[in-house]
Predict the structure.
Amino acid sequence: MNFKKIAKALTGFSTPVFGISWHPPESDRQIIRKLITFLEDRRALYNPHETETPRWVIESVLEIRKKLTDTLSKLDENSDISQHLRGMRAACRKFLDETEKKTRRTRAWWGDVFTALGEMRAVFGMHIAQLCVKYGINVEGDLASILPLPDLEQKSKRKAKQ
């Protein structure tokens, strides 16, 4: 998905748009591009729940969390990127904590974890969308399915006012 389309889908966020009023350092852009490329290959972020194997989803989330931590270690702690990566990493921890709680309580735990996986995907979608808009990065493939959708109701209200 083109970053300009992603920018149109975001509402209620104060996000500088790449190429208009803010030019990010190339090194930050490269860091984010590498991270997005990595995330595009993480099926746990977008595959339908019924096609997933719980063990592999958990392993993938652990790999994502490790990649986020490694990427954070390359950044200045005050970097604008850091808040997004920390938010995504916290979503990974929350998912893993929920998964751990559920496995202790019941054998039929996977059905109970769908909500936690959906929450994690939603958090990732918002952070990825904001990073892509800020750094002018397109999202390829299935990862685009977790990005926020345009608010069609707001669009139609704006058109009606015009």
